[in-house]
Amino acid sequence: MLLRRLATVLGFHAVDLCVLAGLAVPDDMAPLDATAERWVPYVMMDVVHLPAAGAA
Question: Is residue 14 pLDDT above 80, yes or no?
Answer without folding.
Answer: yes
